[in-house]
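Before a colleague's protein record goes any further, I have to sign it off. Would you go through it and say whether the fold makes sense for this chain? Take the sequence as given and treat only the tokens as open to question. The record follows directly below this note.
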Amino acid sequence: MEERGVDENILKVEGVHTFIGQHHILQGVSFDAKADAVTVLIGRNGAGKSTALKSVIGLLPSSKGRIIYKGKEIQDKKPYEIARMGIGFVPENMGIFAELTVEENMRVAMLVEDDTTARRLERTLEMFADLRKFWKAKAGNLSGGQKQMLAIARAIVNDTSLLLIDEPSKGLAPIIVDAVIEAINQIKEHSVVVLVEQNFYMASSVGDYFFILDDGMVVHSGDVEELIQNEELQSRYLGISKVED
């Protein structure tokens, strides 16, 4: 039998509770992210999906529960410490610096500038050709899709084992959504991805596993193919209604 040196679950979130002010947002959330896969957190607005990602990266510290990355608990660490461990985060608002050029945005994001990082940068620019084209342009002048590509590129230019992406399709035209889907499928070859997404087309196109959040709790999980086939789940928790012929 072939030995497995690393737990297939690169990330485990166990019974996490997170508050924003007096509001109890996550109420015992548990999910995991397997190696070589995209895990999708889905649910209606306000279900706690974005809070779950922010809890993992340390921007909204949990009050209870454990967050385990590569076998180590990280729930008490600062965001910069978590990032240096190899976790990238693409926030819903993209988090780019509008007044800096694309090049400057990328260089600010680099934890180190060495040959390995240079190779990752080249691979990233091959994936997002527009970034090379607008390398000297201010990020604020990019289109919405190009800004999203820059936000993702900033997160993967480092040695990122786990990439957290919050609502990458938000506000994007369908053709750009397809480009982001293609990029995420490429990123999956190098990093484990946890994706928050309300666009069911994107979620079902890139996801391998899903966790549905509702009112701060995980109410269902499984293989994405199961969700694609389960119209009752889609209707109940995602508000997707079957169109009658």
Q: What stands out?
A: The two ends are 52 Å apart (CA to CA). The chain has one domain: 9-224. Residues 9-224 form a domain with the Rossmann fold fold (CATH 3.40.50.300). DSSP finds ten helices and ten strands in the chain.
